Amino acid sequence: MQLEPPDEDLPAIQVSLSEFVSAAEQMFTPDQLENFLRFVLAGRLQSHDKLVRIFLNARQGALAPPISKFQVYRDIDSVIGITQDLPFRLPMAIFPLASFRDTLTEDNHLKCSLSCAKNVIGVSLHRIPNMALGKVDRRHITRIFFPGLYCQGQNPAIPPDTMTLIYEKCLRPAVVSLNPVDRSRWPITYSAAMNLYRDLKGQFHFSTIDFPSNLLDQLGPKLLEMFQIQDGLQDAFFVHELRGTKGASHHDPSNAGARRTALNTVFHFFDMSLVRPEDWVVDIGLEIQHEGHVLQWLTKGHLQYRIISHADWNNLVFKRYFPAKGASTVKALQHFPSASYYRQWHALMDRLDEDKAEIIQNDLMQWFNELYWVPHPESDRMWSTKKGGKEWIMLPPGEQRNCPHIAVNSRFIDKDAAVVLVVGTSERQH
């Protein structure tokens, strides 16, 4: 009998010890001898006309430890609100020319009910044409959505002529009518705004103009009123998204006062008298800690990795984790500013002169070069979970999906080595 190689790309099933023994006993019959040997010796199982790999997890199905043995913390990762107003108590920085990169193009798991051809369907928000309106906080964005422009199967991007209509007939007139003192700061036409915010190389720089907080309660209804009289812009609504708050609102989930304080911290710039709870979705994260232990999940995880060259490891990865003294900070930076080490590193760099700062950074790089891997830092965040391109490798092998990105140090990888995913540790396989 010939068995397949042990590392073929197959779907995986994780089983407990009792499940493995029970299945093996059922196969231990003369007519299933080949299946029995494949199962117990090669970890292969014929399931629903497909061959799958079996991973034995001795902790699968194990009882959780008593609650007194570990600590659970809660954190508010993000909040999203769908409203007909602008419920803020701080000035809003409004884009005269909507920032293209702030358009919602990825699924945030929220849907909107739309009536299409007499049928009501739930459409993911990122499929509905939308544009950035402005920001109140560094991690906040308010967008305007236009369900009247939605057409199933078509690109949700708003055409240039419609953007011109939005700016010249709605956005600028609404802002100027409520705050005429800023009339000169708003370009007369959309094309003038395009020219103003584009440099000689053709690159756009999306500046904002602050709008007073005491007039925001009038601006929201005014905009929707003007949209309502324009073909295709009817039934518009606002979506407010606050992301990347992880680490800023840790609290004990069993403490009602701590829960309230955390929520107030995240909503600090919202006018709570205008906030209706039914309009909002709050994404809650749980952090489980057990002193002196590494917690292991009973389900298999996925990640994507790239092997990073020596030069990129030092000049790209390292310098994003430990930027040089005086290095410019990306405005949209997430995760890093909330990390204690990052704040301490910046404080250290601020105290040192340039020569000493460079010496400290070079010394630290020697330690950093001994790491096998780190979360792959993007230009705007520490953790990215987007689907990777061809240069990314999935672990375990399989179809590309949204999962964490890992940067692997090429100093520890040679042509005969492969990266493998082992529960609870890291390992190289030769």
Would you mind describing this structure in some detail?
The chain folds into three domains: 12-56, no CATH class; 73-286, no CATH class; 303-429, no CATH class. It is built from nine helices and 18 strands. The chain has helices at residues 17-27, 33-42, 160-178, 190-196, 216-228, 256-266, 310-321, 340-351, 354-368; strands at 12-15, 44-47, 50-56, 71-83, 92-94, 111-116, 119-124, 130-135, 140-145, 209-211, 237-242, 280-289, 303-308, 373-375, 393-395, 405-409, 418-422, 425-429. The strands form five sheets. A seven-stranded antiparallel sheet has the order 10-5-8-9-11-4-12, with helices on one face. A four-stranded mixed sheet has the order 14-16-13-15. A three-stranded mixed sheet has the order 1-3-2. β6 (111-116) and β7 (119-124) form a beta hairpin. α3 packs across α5. Residues 423-430 have low confidence and may be disordered.
Question: Secondary-structure blueprint of this entry?
Answer:
Elements: E1 12-15, H1 17-27, H2 33-42, E2 44-47, E3 50-56, E4 71-83, E5 92-94, E6 111-116, E7 119-124, E8 130-135, E9 140-145, H3 160-178, H4 190-196, E10 209-211, H5 216-228, E11 237-242, H6 256-266, E12 280-289, E13 303-308, H7 310-321, H8 340-351, H9 354-368, E14 373-375, E15 393-395, E16 405-409, E17 418-422, E18 425-429
Parallel strand pairs: 1-3, 13-16
Antiparallel strand pairs: 2-3, 4-11, 4-12, 5-8, 5-10, 6-7, 8-9, 9-11, 13-15, 14-16, 17-18
